Model the fold of this input.
Amino acid sequence: MQDKQCSLKEAVQMISNGSTLTFSGFTIWRRPMAVIFEMIRQGKNNLHLIEVNSGSHSEMLIGAGAVSIWESCWIGHELYGKVPYCLDRKMKSGDITAEDYSHQHILYRMQAGAAGIPYMPTWASRGTDILNPEYDMLGKAGLRDGQNPRIPRQKYAFVSDPFYGEGEMILVPAARPDVCIIHAQQAGEEGTVRVMGQTFSDAQAAKAADKVIVIAEEIVPESYLREEPDRNLLPSYLVDAVVEVPWGAYPTGVYGYYDVDGAFLREFASASKNEASLEAWFGEWVYGVESHEEFLDKLTVSHLMSLKANGYHKYSTRVKRGVK
Amino acid sequence: MQDKQCSLKEAVQMISNGSTLTFSGFTIWRRPMAVIFEMIRQGKNNLHLIEVNSGSHSEMLIGAGAVSIWESCWIGHELYGKVPYCLDRKMKSGDITAEDYSHQHILYRMQAGAAGIPYMPTWASRGTDILNPEYDMLGKAGLRDGQNPRIPRQKYAFVSDPFYGEGEMILVPAARPDVCIIHAQQAGEEGTVRVMGQTFSDAQAAKAADKVIVIAEEIVPESYLREEPDRNLLPSYLVDAVVEVPWGAYPTGVYGYYDVDGAFLREFASASKNEASLEAWFGEWVYGVESHEEFLDKLTVSHLMSLKANGYHKYSTRVKRGVK
Amino acid sequence: MEKALMQREGYAALDEYTSADLLAVAAAREVREEEVVFAGTGLPMLAIMLAQVSGTSCKVIYEAGTIESQSRSLPSSVGDPRCVTGCSIASGLLDVFDQLQRGRIDLAFLGGAEIDQYGNVNTTVIGDYLHPDVRFPGSGGNSDINSLSKRTVFIMLQEKRRFKEQVDYITSPGWRVRHWPSGEWVHRRRAYGQKFAGGPTAVITNMAVYRFDEESGRMYVDTIHPGVAKDMLQENAGFPLDFSRCRGETVPPTYEELDILYQVVDPEGVFLAKKS
Amino acid sequence: MEKALMQREGYAALDEYTSADLLAVAAAREVREEEVVFAGTGLPMLAIMLAQVSGTSCKVIYEAGTIESQSRSLPSSVGDPRCVTGCSIASGLLDVFDQLQRGRIDLAFLGGAEIDQYGNVNTTVIGDYLHPDVRFPGSGGNSDINSLSKRTVFIMLQEKRRFKEQVDYITSPGWRVRHWPSGEWVHRRRAYGQKFAGGPTAVITNMAVYRFDEESGRMYVDTIHPGVAKDMLQENAGFPLDFSRCRGETVPPTYEELDILYQVVDPEGVFLAKKS
Done:
């Protein structure tokens, strides 16, 4: 058995500039943030993100200038910031090509990728401008010429249903990322992955990708995970690297481990409004720390303890969330 | 909350003659056998079975003359009988139209049904006679005229991939059964279903169907099932009836509850070789008992105890399976 | 109604609730018994939890993969572990979106940045899509959920710039939409063909409740919130409002509803701040 | 080899093993380190478990929904709870078939009722499909697994009527197949186009090991089992066998392999009955 365990730095070195990436999680939940920060520190660039949905993690990558193509259906910070300022600026400056799909469309794109088929049919979001052929941005950028194996020749296709006479289906092309980066609650030494609570679209994302990097809150014995195999998400052979990084999804939240740090995200969202304040934020929280451990120390123990999940409820009962 | 609990007889009365049915389980595992026996006793007829895979349960229904259309990829008794004698005879007598798909094809048919789309694309089983247009048996029987909403207008279609230039895909039409009958380990009073071990294609079968009848080894409190919602298969609102029937999948096996009774299946397989011995078998084991309880009593406690699963291993460690 | 009379009948007076309270309450009243309801983040969650606690036996689905939630603590978004409490299924998006497309959803509660007279909603860009003034988060599941549910109720803030004759970009389809690939403007029924299941039935704003004439596809004023004048409503809309079917005032929150909202649903004040 | 010499080197003699033993052993030797192997019910299970216990770190997938099984008790079929022991994932068919189509499977171990010179396998009917002599179980996953794995090894009983020039019905594709919808006979590579991943690489019978010339698509004799004469082999085949590349005798089971088979893999005698 090959040893898949490595350091965070080594895992991030496996990601090439220019590659097509996707991630675990949903909006501001269970995102591989330690990898995002390390990617920014390592100066990754020219990335093509294809995500079932996006969030603060991608706003950070985009803000850091690491991204040239973004395909998804949503980006923001949920309650903590409605406008994706980084994407907004990079779109206007022409540094990013952004391709919009609906949630079901891009979920089906990922599922088609996971199933090894070039597309999936769907009925979702007919009548919307998401399907407007004038708004095929990768097409407009000349990137649908078949040269890049990660970019399909059309944004959509329409084909009639030959079976039940239901009319014209929307076909959405498979997503075929190079690498999927998963933040999971637990992984075994051989690579088996357990995700607790909602699994979001993690299975589709990991299975669509050619390579999978797993960051786990805890590395546990394989034999432990294999006592309850119906709770696991991925088999060992789909996983290429495993890194144990406690609090590695902070400031996003992890079921059973810790809550979202809303205040921290709100601060980032606010800093992202202009380049200067964004640079200052990166200076303090990303470039200003050497490692994930240093980052955690800077956050302080008492702060993290307020976010720590209650063992029964699976969320923090101590975090201050509202006006009370 | 409406009360979904009813008796086995009442549940089977919900199944109309002529309807399209599908089932939980895999070959000779976790089949809703108590329902099958009761369907035979109630004289159901003209049924259209569409199953990801078939097995002893369908050989029984077919042998009893209850089935007029069978669509699947496999039928038999595994180790305990290789030839599906009932299907063989009814095909030759012209009483059944049998439509062959491959496993992946019919699984995708069920998944398309579950997802509310009219078809799914696949690459599987190219080059085989499964795709031979001369072998479209429902077409030959004149049943692909669009009159029956459960029968698509074509067995297959072929459409080119417009996205990655991968050539001609096989499109398989959605399966749209009227009723799915599920045998599960546990169900809540409201209808939430838990299946343990392998889930086979149960989720696809139940979600493709318009109505779901659940037979459970045990009815347990909803609150118990909802403490671990990642282990459940179906939400309550997809379930129309719940019946508690211990040993209700016998002679097929149930993970964590009991093993397949190979000798019993072998006896059926052998009896099914001709009409006379088959009638005698039905006379003894189906028509000859009034109820599931009477059936169990006839089997005897000591016999069932040899099949009962070990609490840790989830299979019987006492059953005699081989020559030793 | 006069304040004393209102109070006697259990209804709160204008100075006793906020517009967010009324939004949540009016939305909760749209839910029917046994319905399967898809709820988005924010006010939709308040509405559905209020309906549940008030005794309507509806089932709530959250987009990120929880089904039949019975949260004890208000989720801050649909990916929150708080959604998992008491649910029958914790799975993922594929389960939920497949069920949606299979036609299992009766009612959707959604938000929107801007809406037009046909109920088309935009959450993607302000301005020309190819040269946007402001980029918004994008569709999320709004368009899918709205397009495949039997009824959709939009809950949003009403301002002139958000209530438009025509939205800059159709993120989520209303009753008159564009039929692709041709781009022809058609009735929603035509765009969806056999998959037509329904569409937006109400828009609940901080000022009024609107409904739709399904044939013309146009929005009309159903009820106006207490304290809001007709001309104030029109001033906050970018197209001429149809008052011809207005039934009068929106029924205000009851004290019991407010109690549930502030004591049970959102005691932490995640989305609600009590009127001081 | 002479019996005494064989024994000295650890190999069992002809009278010390059954043809089922040799089938399992020969099949197990096809497995390479770290491979993901899809195994069907019966002898394929014996082969893969023998390979695992012998120290080949392969991963086994069973069709019904178990991945990386480490069974302690031999499953009687792929739906057996015994498949679940020690596996990393207990899920269902969709997971497994999606991964198959995604190209994750290195090697498939499958059975078959009849096979032809191009490796086409029939498990559906004997005779004309439209008027069959005997109905068999049908494809199951045989065709899918074989069509999408990188290599397939068929394990089967050799009889003249089962080893045919052309099968009555192509259930599972070999190297020359029919390309639908046209029905043209083509090389497997052409039928699969960009999805071509490989195909049948070996057929292991109770008499010999066969392999394929991938260009002509035809089967040839690779090794003949100890005690089987060339003409006996030909008598049990319905087409002229190609002996031109025959490498000699199949290596017999070692005592260690037999021990593992009878003491560890199938001590209950589910599939194996010891030579008396």
Q: What stands out?
A: Chain B has a mean pLDDT of 97. Chain B has twelve helices and twelve strands. Chain B touches chain D through 76 residues (CB under 8 Å). Chain B has one domain: 1-116+174-311.
